[in-house]
Amino acid sequence: xxxxxxxxxxxxxxxxxxxxxxxxxxxxxxxxxxxxxxxxxxxxxxxxxxxxxxxxxxxxxxxxxxxxxxxxxxxxxxxxxxxxxxxxxxxxxxxxxxxxxxxxxxxxxxxxxxxxxxxxxxxx
Length: 124
Hints:
4-stranded antiparallel β-sheet
């Protein structure tokens, strides 16, 4: 049974950092593309970052380039999202998602498996 569990969210001041974790089980992580998404109240879910299973390439939304870094530890079955220089507009529920074949890994519709989300609030 495929499971994804996010953790690491919380309240942080603008300019601060958080590291989100996505613990996976029920599948072989290195065969799956993993994406991080976020959804703010009243807004659509948007892609933040993703890491491809085929070549390990990473992709980022323009709004987070240079501030966020995605990485994976296949031995620990965990994918991370390091978030630096956080801004109030980064406030959202963050989700990780997985699928074995994804055409555009920053688009949520390509994923079958989702975690429950973790809240990130950036506020002074």
